[in-house]
Records
---
Amino acid sequence: AQSVSQHNHHVILSEAASLELGCNYSYGGTVNLFWYVQYPGQHLQLLLKYFSGDPLVKGIKGFEAEFIKSKFSFNLRKPSVQWSDTAEYFCAVNHNNAGNMLTFGGGTRLMVKP
Amino acid sequence: SQTIHQWPATLVQPVGSPLSLECTVEGTSNPNLYWYRQAAGRGLQLLFYSVGIGQISSEVPQNLSASRPQDRQFILSSKKLLLSDSGFYLCAWSPRDRGIQPQHFGDGTRLSIL
């Protein structure tokens, strides 16, 4: 079965620190990859997505992610975090079948200290 | 623009009582619809998805059921709630027949079983 792993469950950083959140998936076929963010008290929002093409994907709010097929990874990065980046981040992988289904990782809670 | 509504936002129910959570989507037609449960540290677990009226697929065996009586309405139900049904339930939609698309999430319903 397809699975998605986010190994960092909780991350605490100071403002201006660099961020990298890991995401690994188990599916060997064609994948479509997503990062979602959930700010406190808000609904899940799409941060960025990868379907094909350039494996380095730019998203909103200065986030980017790199698809490394050989490592089955899609890590999320930001060079300099802000207090407002405090949120929970979810990696998701698409099953390319009917229903456009997603398999989500367990999430990473990021706290940025001012 | 498209919007998704879930209600109620919070619900407290006794064990053994029935459940009905409602989700509606506006501004689009023929969407794919999804119900997820979000548990701390475990990400989002897909419970049900639907590609059309009356078409429901279940991803995990459980005490819950789903129905889609209208094109843009998705209902999560139970005849008798268990303590283990407590959690945060999210509805989502994605466009159908347009290839792989991100899913868009509602604000969620926090369900507490006493």
---
Amino acid sequence: EIVLTQSPGTLSLSPGERATLSCRASQSISGSSLAWYRQKPGQAPRLLIYDASIRATGIPDRFSGSGSGTDFTLSISRLEPEDFALYYCQQYGDSPRTFGQGTKVEI
Amino acid sequence: QVQLQQWGEGLLKPSETLSLSCTVHGGSFSTYSWGWIRQPPGEGLGWIGEISHSGTTDYNPSLKSRLTISVDTSKRQFSLRLTSVTAADSATYFCARMPAGYLDVWGQGTTVTVSS
């Protein structure tokens, strides 16, 4: 199975700053089949990005995704208060689908 | 607006069977696959498995021997059944819509605790 490793584990930033999150795969992900989710405490995750770079419906343009093969990045250009949360990447190019272990973005 | 409403037993004893269901309100049912994901307390997300509207399933190999995911198109529902549960199966379980392997609409989550 494809193992996804997210870094850093925790990112300490301030509102208005830029966040850069990394997701590295143990083998190449076919078709850039990678998604990013944001999860706030006590809530279900919310889809932010799919196919590595396509914003999901209703997601503001401060979120952007990039990458291919084994290295993927989620960037948040200007952190809003609601962006301080957990972020997960997920690959769906192969079965079983797998998630990264998460990156916590904290103030 | 599509909403997924999930329900099921939240407290089980070891060796019992976990059963959860998810009803899809709004939107199309027959053009999507539907999945289950779980999250142990304080831990990350884990993919359990998925089912297409036509009933084709794909399971996590680590759960395959205990897992059944089924679909009832007429009721716009899909269900999860996990047998012989242990404390390791304690988690919040989510149902979700899967347009193409990713998960774009999620249920509210059901907390399942396995304890004697």
